[in-house]
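To: structure desk
From: M.T.
Subject: fold request, one chain
Message: Could you run this one when you get a chance? Sequence is below, nothing fancy, just the single chain.
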Amino acid sequence: MPAYDAVVLDVDGTLVDTNYQHALAWYRAFRRVGITLPVWRLHRAIGMGGDQLVAAVAGDDAEREHGDTLRVAWAEEFQPMLGEVAAFDRVRELLRAIGEHGPTVVLASSGKPEHVDAYLDLFDGRDLAAAWTTSEDVERTKPEPDLVAAALDRAGGGDALVVGDTVWDMEAAGRAGQACVAVRTGGFSAAELRDAGALAVYDSVGDLCEDLDAVLAGSPSVVTSPSGSPVASVSG
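Reply: Done. C-alpha cells follow.
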C-alpha cells in the first residue's frame, strides 16, 4: 500500500526542460535595467518564483527599484523560447503509474497560467493530473511552503511525496512537512539535493519510474545516510 496520499510534482525542470531557458530570460531581463549577472548565478536560483528570485540574486535594492519591471521583462524574454521547450521522456508514463498505484497526482507549478497550459499540452497531462497550481494560487513561491500546501489542499490533504529538481523544491517540501525525492534534470548535483532533504535522487523521471514501487512504499532504492552520503544508487 502506498505510504502517501498524494504525489506533488514540480513542473519546470522536473517534467519539462526549461531551467536554462529561464536562466537566459532572467539574464536578458536584468540587462534591460542595466544589471549584468553571471548566467550560472541565475541558474542557481531557478526554482524560486520571480517574487523571490530578484532579491536572492541581486539584492533588496534591486527588488525595490526594479522588481516588477524585471518580472515583466522576464516574461517577455521567455515567451519566444516557449516553443523550444520539450517535455522529458516518460513523463506521461510516470504520471499514469503514480495514479495507478493510488496516490492523487497534483502538479505544483509557480509558472504563469499560460505557461502551465503549454506544458500540459506538451506531455498531454490534463487527464493524468487531478489538479495543478499556477503563480495565481499563492502569494509566496518556493522556497516558501505555500505552493506545496496549496497543491496538497487540492489533493484533499494527507501525506504527500514531493518530486522536484532543485534545492528550492526540497526546501519547500521540508517546510511543508512533506517527504521529497529529486531528479537531476534541473542542473543541481545529487549531493546538493540530498543535503537539501531529498530522500532519493534520480537522474530523470525515467529512472524514477524504474524505482516507483519502492518510492511510493516509502523505501526508495537510493537513500541518504545521516552523514548525507549515498548508501545505494540507482543512477550515476
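Reply (cont.): The first helix runs from residue 19 to 32. Let me know if you need anything else for the meeting.
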